[in-house]
Write a structure and sequence with these properties.
It comes from Onychorhynchus coronatus (Royal flycatcher). The chain has a 5-stranded mixed beta barrel with strand order 1-2-3-5-4. It is an alpha+beta fold. Strand 2 and strand 3 form a beta hairpin. It has a domain of 95 residues: OB fold (Dihydrolipoamide Acetyltransferase, E2P) (Beta Barrel). It starts with 10 loop residues before the first helix and ends in a 6-residue tail after the last helix.
């Protein structure tokens, strides 16, 4: 067809049947096909035409157009490029890549699997990989080539045993870029120094007690 129209079909159309929708679309197409008589700006219809034709999509009403776009520039990378996961040996032991890299599998399946250098892995990882099957690691993605199914990255830290509170919490905070380092001395100096500190009765009288 010369004209492809994407229309919305709602409950009102369902009540009146599709005939009403077809009539509406046919009327709109006929309006677009009328010769305006202006200098080449109109859409002409001749005897040879089998049906209405719209050659210029700019003449179509906005509701019949599907907006399209493409990404031209990444202004800001929102993801921290850090992920929590596990490391394991590559399946193909005869490949050249097996001697140089291990596979990092993120816990978050939205993050791609990552090739990491064996130099970043623990020294005994190659000889006893089963000992690290439940160890959590932090990996940072550094590159992802267009022709590769896997990204490349670097192991930055070993968190500990999977399932334990401390490693799991640290992994989540690192993934989302939360700074959980110790407060600076300047920040700690703003706190009361005489401990244990208690709220004075005068201050407590002005507050609503939610304890």
């Amino acid at each position: 067809p010369d004209v492809i129209i994407e229309a919305q079909f709602d409950d009102n159309d369902a009540e009146h049947g599709q005939d009403h929708l077809q009539d509406t679309l046919s009327d709109d197409i006929k309006k677009l096909s009328v010769d305006t008589g202006e200098k080449g700006d109109g859409v002409h219809r001749t005897k040879q035409d089998d049906g209405p034709k719209v050659n210029d999509p700019r003449l179509l009403p906005d509701e019949f157009l599907q907006r399209t776009a493409k990404v031209v520039y990444i202004l800001e990378k929102k993801h921290s490029r850090a992920a929590t996961g596990f490391i394991k040996l590559l399946a193909d032991r005869n490949s050249e890549l097996f001697k140089r890299c291990a596979m990092f599998s993120p816990v978050d399946h939205r993050v791609p699997r990552v090739y990491v250098p064996l130099a970043d892995c623990p020294p005994d990882f190659v000889t006893r990989p089963e000992g690290y099957s439940q160890k959590l690691f932090i990996c940072r993605i550094v590159d992802w080539k267009e022709d590769s199914n896997f990204a490349t990255g670097q192991l930055s830290k070993s968190l500990g045993q999977a399932g334990e509170i401390e490693p799991e919490t640290e992994g989540i905070l690192t993934e989302y870029g939360v700074d959980f380092s110790d407060f600076s001395p300047e920040a700690l100096e703003c706190l009361p120094q005489n401990l244990p500190w208690v709220i004075s009765p005068e201050e407590l009288a002005k507050r609503r007690d939610l304890r």
